[in-house]
Amino acid sequence: MAELFDKYERTLRGQSTASSKVDSVHIAGSGVVAGGKYNRISISGSGKVTGNVEAEEIKVSGSARFMGDVTAQFFKCAGSCKIEGNVKSDLFKSAGSISISGSIEGNEVKIAGALKSYGIKARILHVSGSFKAESVEAEEAFFEISEEAVAEKIVAKRITVRPSRGENMLSLGKILKYALRRHALPILEAREISADSVTVEDVIIKGNIVAKEIVLRGKADIVGSIQGEVKKEK
């Protein structure tokens, strides 16, 4: 297994060969890690990973740039992360801002803050904040919308859309923000939404929906075509 980390050893220690396995890497402050296979990568501060990386666990607290594909059982970013490739993770968590040039694929994906990604594919997806993606595919997708929410296509068995918790709090800032907007509700824009069931609460959806059941709660509205049974609730 030591040969898997030759590149890492040469980069950090200037050696031509590696004699031992590096189980984990920790950056505190600022640093660079070469791509490769690791048990654990931890970045506290500002870090860069050059090349494709595979690890059991990757944690970022601060900012990080991944210059390649990322594969991890557990990935967590608290702060700002930029991934220049695709991501595969059993459990993917992000709190803050994350930009992915490729797609996310995972069992459970949880986003709190802002996300930009080409595609999202998960068994369970929970987005709280804003997001922009070409395609979204999940068994269960839960969206708490605050600002920008844009997708070309969303496909899931069950979809729930509602304002983020912050949007439900009455404040002067909220009143002023809504006064400058045409609609006093968050907006989800998606050219095509396909699901077994779609539940929308106090959010405007701009797009076409195809579903067996569509539930509209509060001031929810659909600006587009609808195919399916529509139920309105208070």
Automatic annotation (TrEMBL):
This is Polymer-forming cytoskeletal protein. It comes from Thermofilum adornatum. It holds the Pfam family Bactofilin.
